[in-house]
Amino acid sequence: MNETPTRVVLADDDILLREGLASLLERSGFEVAGQAGNAAELLALVRERRPDLAVVDIRMPPGHATEGVEAAKVIRTELPEVGILLLSAHVEVDQAMELLATGHRVGYLLKSRVTAVSDFVETLERIVHGGSVVDPSLVAELFSTRRRQDPLELLTQREREVLSLMAEGRSNAGIAHKLWITEGTVEKHVRSIMSRLRLPETEDDHRRVLAVLAFLDAR
Hints:
It is a single chain. This protein is α/β, with parallel strands linked by helices and 219 residues long. It is 51% helix and 14% strand. The protein has helices spanning 15-27, 39-49, 67-78, 93-100, 117-128, 136-144, 157-167, 172-179, 183-196, 205-217, and strands at residues 7-11, 31-36, 53-57, 83-88, 106-110, 132-134. The longest helix has 14 residues, at 183-196. InterPro entries: CheY-like_superfamily, NreC/VraR/RcsB-like_REC, Sig_transdc_resp-reg_C-effctor, Sig_transdc_resp-reg_receiver, Tscrpt_reg_LuxR_C, WalR-like. Keywords: DNA-binding, Phosphoprotein, Transcription, Transcription regulation. Residues 7-126 form the Response regulatory domain. Residues 148-219 form the HTH luxR-type domain. It comes from Microbispora bryophytorum subsp. camponoti.
């Protein structure tokens, strides 16, 4: 028996981007259950069609401010089983922090990441299956804006790389594969990061992401 395809709703006022994304997802085995050009259309679609995932632009009509994030928060409250991926052309993590802090079935990517098809599809699947994903570019941007005496300055470059991959929702094994180091080495880096940042150690990927987000939000 064939597995039921993941049903996705797309919300973006850029119709060319939206149609391109729909085509990409359909070719990758997803079912596009609907498209929306503004927040009101998005909410109506999600309520009617109950997709597995909503891919949402942060800035949408009429004000092109935080309409997408606000709609996503409503979806999370009304239909918490629906996964949410926020997309933005810019780093706007402050507006999304509350949603990201829910810690499950949620992600935030920069639109430039959509060009890496395999990574993008992997991200969607990870969110649908309960994971949390934060674009490493967002983490890097937050690193660059830390206060001078911020504890993040205590981290080595390798530890920052590991922390960025932790924020993507990757396991220790996944981090080891990405950085071409052993899993044991990753475990040592994670212990060091948790110690330096005074965060509790845990094997739960979602809680690790929450810990990273909570620390970065306290800047």
